[in-house]
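Narrative summary of target 7.
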Amino acid sequence: MNLQRLCPVYRKWLQLNPSHAREHRIAMQAQTQQAHQAGKYNEARRLGYQTFEAAKVVLTALQPVTDTVDKSIHEDVLAFGTMAMYLSSLLHKENKKHEAHHILQECHQQLIAILPLHASKPSVCKLICAIQVALEKGNGAKPAEHQQALTLH
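Modeled conformation, tokenized:
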């Protein structure tokens, strides 16, 4: 499943400019919610995918290492996790269960991948773990089953 919904050039620009990517993510979150509330489900899904991808770009972009970045990291991790759950919920309502499951899996795997990068920041690690638990509940899998599924991939 191709989840690249942003133009590759724009995606690269967002990677090089994480603060602009954050602004883009916040704006897209608002647009997604507005479309959903207005009953424009196709548009909400399209915007949701773009928002999820922008959140992933922010999460994986190289950023300066300072103590003041911690708040931004918390916001980035939380935005990525909540957007995955929101998009999954939108897809589930449209009976696109496979896509919904895939989004939650991708989010879970990405969080596992970034966890070692934040090993020296216990509060970030706790947040990542809390989001992973929420993803597992949203995915309908018991933690042991989910862990087993991850080791098979």
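The helical segments are 8-16, 18-37, 41-60, 70-93, 97-114, 122-139, 143-152.
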